User: What shape does this take?
Amino acid sequence: MFLRHLELEEFRSYRHQRLDLDPRGLRLSGPNGSGKSTLLEAVALLATMRSPRSAADREILNWESGSDLSVPPFARCVGAARREDGDVQIELALQSDPQRPGHVRKQIKLDGRAVRAMDAVGVLKAVLFAPDDLALVSGPPAGRRRYFDLTISQLDGRYLRSLSRYNRILVQRNSLLRSLAKDRLDLRAAEEQLAFWDEELVAFGSHLAACRFRMLRRLGDLAAGRFHWLSGQMDLRFSYRSNLTSEGWPSEEGPRGNFSTLQAIVSRGYEEQLREARREELRRGTSLVGPHRDDAEFAIGGVDLAAYGSRGQQRLAVVALKLAEADLMREQAGDVPVLLLDDVLSELDERHRGLLVEAVGQVGSQVFVTATDTASLTGFGLDELPRATVAGGVIRPLSPAASVGG
Assistant: This one.
């Protein structure tokens, strides 16, 4: 899988940029704030329909756009990809909604046909390496949940649909819990009103938890192998920590088992925990049990990496996890993802920089790699990649293989 063409229009600092891309990828250098990360953000956005840098779509818009046409600010991103099963064009258009200040209208097309976001996620698969990925080890649980939701969603459309449905149910159930807490209904009356939402929550939440267990355990196995190769001696353990517990829930070391059986086990435990948490949920007016409170943890030799690991160990753990993510996508989808290395080589010493580039080469992916220092983009096999520079949102090729238009 690789991108053949990328076009950005009014996308942050890019007013209008067209790139005809080499299957091998691109080396892109430029000063901070020049647009390097924005280019990789655009590719990741086409893969997941969510920006890896911003929680709000409105931050992507160039707010000076549209003024000469008397239309609201907008942004557009188009990618033409070659996959094992043929070519596909992905288009994402965003425009400020004049009727709802602060809101953005989103339109997504595959080969010119309008589709929902969930139908476009994973059509292009990409893995992003970025300096702030260190938060996957040391940051709050929400960041880790977002990471494994985006990873699994690129591989499993049903997971993404369950996640979307679960989140909507959670909002409705929390609203009802707040209302019930305010009205101080007796427990039986409250349970009657919650029964429908509990059933829905369990149905979709148990599917999410079972998917996470299966997929993240495999991701952890792959990450352990990558980390051992990178470090030469230390053993990494990446473990899914579900908010749901139940008798019969498989251990990390236990057999994988049948998926429907696993989901049934999770479902029974979920129902039981909801009953046990009922009084406290009514008191606090919020849902206390479910995948929205899941987490994952890293350990080396049984020692918590977030609390006791060095910054170097944490960085290597993240690199190993990202390489494992690429391995998982190749294993599960039968195609290699596009790899996006956003100024990460400068964060590694020379040995680990070489190992990372070697590993990336073994994956066989199209690679986009950025740096402020051009020296970081030479050697270790990187010299084979087409090279370009960027300044002020304009990309200029430095090798014939990188065809650029504006």
Q: What stands out?
A: The chain has a mean pLDDT of 89. The radius of gyration is 23 Å. DSSP finds ten helices and 16 strands in the chain.
